[in-house]
Design goal:
This protein is about 75% helix and about 0% strand. The protein is an all-alpha fold. It has a single domain, classed as Proton glutamate symport protein. About 50% of the residues are buried. The N terminus and C terminus are likely disordered.
Length: about 450
Amino acid sequence: MFALPVSTHPSIGRLTLRLSGFVRGRLWLQVLVAMFAGIATGMAIGPTGGWLSPAMAQLASNWLAIPGYLFLSMVQMIVIPLVVASIILGMTSSRDMAQLRSMGVRTGLFFLFTTVVAALIGVLVALAVEPGAYLQVAQMPVAVTTAGADAAGAAPSLSSLPAQIVRVVPTNPLQASVEQNMLQVVVFAIFVGVALVTMDGKLARPLVDLLGAVQEVSMVVVRWAMYLVPAAVFGLMTQLTARMGLDALLGMGVYVLTVLGALLLAFAFLMLVYALGRRRSPLDFLKGSRDVLLLAFSTSSSAAVMPLTIRTAEESLGVRKGVSRFVIPLGTTINMAGTALYQVIATLFLAQVYQVDVGLSGLLLVVVLAVGASIGSPGTPGIGIVILAMMLGTVGIPAEGIALIIGVDRVLDMSRTTLNVAGDLVAASVIDQVTAAAQPTADADSGAVS
């Protein structure tokens, strides 16, 4: 058993440097300007303004949306090697198996707890506001693409649950990567990380160095993708507004405000957890994490900003390396509290629109599915829609509603990603506090940053 010296890991400082330019350049402001410009352009060429014929408007918006689809594809392309390398490197930075086991259990329970609470907040807010009552079925789009529902597959039943549990361990890691089964990918990374920790240091070092290079290469690709973000947001918003029209988007205003309000409540809950668990002021958290939260809002990808999240935890929030470099890469994949909250509200919203009586058992099923499906989903833009497609059929909601949800998903995706990243930082801070209390003889230099 060994503890790999942190100096052999790729420097988080070098990885963060690749993202710092986007923070200084106020990418979040560029994204907001691009969003409103896209809505205005879509209004002009779409059915609202009527500058172009429907066929020409569709053609123009499809061309304008190319940067958006390129950005999504590039992030999805690189997320698996980035997450795998980061999880394994984070595990090898731990001192021993006992600490790794203790930290892993605490991290899993913390993520499960916060995700369940976020889903319950979504249920309460959706039932209190009833955003679906403000929209009629006649306003729903006619043309619907259900490819996402087909790709998502059917929800597991109670009889098939044992087989689903067994399949968590991948028989073919390459196939799991191709299918983007992130839960299997995480399990594979954990197995490799544990094996490296128990191996002789000289034998493990070449693979760890290789994974460090993979992590740096991944961040180079992420930086290239992030140059596309303003153009991506402009093109996607233009395409959506031109296709649906401004009236349909405005009709979704109550739904959007409901989701944003619930996300704010969930964020307030995280701040309470931080204050109690870390014993520090939430204002300190907001001040220290402002840059990474704005970048997460801009990119809609917790995986893309992961190195900056780690650096923020270590430098601004005082989290030790051994904790931050294990908890945050793991949280990038399995901590999706914002996604679970969004899925619950979206499902209940469409149930209200189509006047589907979900019932108490249906509510419990929605919460369980939202929590379970969000765990292990990729930290990439738009994944919430694919998971939502799976959930709708389980409670008898027509899949046609997905078309309208997609129309306003970009803003909500950015907002729930911000909550997910905040949850990762809170988790690392609280677990660091608990671990330090349980191990008062920890090395004094464990909180240093390379």
